């Protein structure tokens, strides 16, 4: 199966694992010349707070979820890494439930792969999937790659 479209789920917590996510997505997308869709999902209050922090007024062109996602530090870092690696990509923003929005995006794009990050939670270092990652894995219309952050 060839990979043409990859959805990378991005949330505010992914700032700490942005480098690992970038490396993984480059490893998946680059050999296949796939298009990566960075999908940054905000909850409602988070979106309002970030928009306010950016100085963007409601109802203006720069206040859309796509525009705010493009300006978010985590998405910018991932976009920069993908650009430097020559990986085609775009940014989508959404406001709502992270798992639902990622699955909906993957479904609407007929994605070939979803990449989602998460944390290690046990002292033995075994990755335990959080509710968002688990929901995406169970509901996505395509294979899902889970990327955990490194132990501190």
Walk me through the structure:
It is a single chain. By secondary structure, the chain is an alpha/beta fold. Strand 1, helix 1 and strand 2 (35-42) form a beta-alpha-beta unit. It has one domain: HUPs (Rossmann fold), CATH 3.40.50.620. The protein has helices at 18-29, 44-53, 65-71, 73-84, 98-109, 131-139; strands at 5-10, 35-42, 89-95, 113-118, 144-148. The longest helix is centred in the first third of the chain and has 12 residues, at 18-29. A 5-stranded parallel beta sheet has the order 3-2-1-4-5, with helices on both faces. The chain has 6 helices and 5 strands; from the N terminus they run βαβαααβαβαβ. The N and C termini lie far apart (36 Å). Helices cover 41% and strands 21% of the residues.
SSE blueprint:
Blueprint: E1 5-10, H1 18-29, E2 35-42, H2 44-53, H3 65-71, H4 73-84, E3 89-95, H5 98-109, E4 113-118, H6 131-139, E5 144-148
Parallel strand pairs: 1-2, 1-4, 2-3, 4-5
Helix pairs in contact: 1-4, 5-6
Shape: globular
Rg calculated over all Cα atoms: 15 Å
CATH fold-level assignment: Rossmann fold
Give the termini distance in whole angstroms. Answer: 36 Å
Key phrases:
41% helix; 6 helices; 5-stranded parallel β-sheet; alpha/beta; 21% strand
